[in-house]
Structure formats: structure tokens, C-alpha cells
Amino acid sequence: MAIKPDQRIIVAIPAILIAAIAVWLLYTTFAETEPDLSLNAAITNTPENFDDRDIAASPRQLASLPDAAELSRLRLSRQSFRRGGLGSQALMTFTIRNANAYDVKDLEILCAFRSKDGRYTTERRRVFDDTVGMKSRKAFPTTLMGFVNIKATKARCAVVTASRA
Predict the structure, then answer these.
(1) Which of 146, 139, 137, 25 is CA-nearest to residue 74?
(2) Average pLDDT of 108-131?
(3) How confident is the model over 32-45, as pLDDT tens digits?
(4) DSSP E strand stretches across 15-128
(5) Which of 12, 56, 96, 108 could bond to 161 as cystine, CB 3.0-4.6 Å?
């Protein structure tokens, strides 16, 4: 018994659709796993919950950092991460230490959030209008950094820019 052309179409269309959906799913999975290198140039502090091998910035990227000499005396001494807003928002608690001989204001903080396997990363920036006095420290308790990937389990923050008060 021979197969008619109408029967071939009925079998071929679902097979083509299944193959197209499989290719689409594989493409979106690989697109999500590409590393985000823009954070590596901006992070200068290395907290204990990340490896040193996570930071791989080229000299060109490091040259684009604003006034690295002044930022070297400004650091985050404590960081902690927890979730809020049904688990989709990041709440960071951190302390900024200013070892400079002048007050610092308009602090810009960059935080990177990643999952345990390193696949999902999210970056959030926030500018704080507060002033940190010279040779002192200031705590920022339970600060909303924004929405992050629900699979993010680790966080790392760094001071990106600051200006004299």
C-alpha cells in the first residue's frame, strides 16, 4: 500500500514544528549562558564569596575607570544580601569606609548577582546622595538595589564612582 501525498504532509508538519521548537529552546539556553564582561571592569573589591578568577579586566577597561587613586581609599567593608518583594528584589546591607582626608558624596555602587552555577548574572547600579565623612564609615542598612534574577544566590558590590563633598 503506497502512502498518499496528503498523509506525508500530515506527518511532516508536526515533525517540522517539533524540530523548530527544539532549536529555539537550545538557542535561548545558549544565549543566556554568555558571560557578561562589563561588570569585570568596574568591580575592584573582591569579597570572600567570589573567586579571584571572576575578575578578568583588560588594561583598556581598567583605564576607563574614574579616578582609581581616590577610589582606592574608599571601600565596602561589610556586605550582605537577602531577598525581598516575593524573592525578586535584592536588599543589600553594606558599610562604606572612607580613608580619605576629605568628605565623599554621590557614591555610585555597582552590585553583581549570580547563581550558584554562574549562568545567571544580573547587575544593578545605584547612586547614593549621602555624604561619608573623612576617615569614617557609614552603614547603609537594607538598601533596595532593584530586581534580580530569581536564581541569584551570591552578590558582590563595589564603589564605582564618588565625588568630593
Answers:
(1) 137
(2) 88
(3) 444 444 444 444 44
(4) 74-84, 89-98, 104-114, 121-128
(5) 108
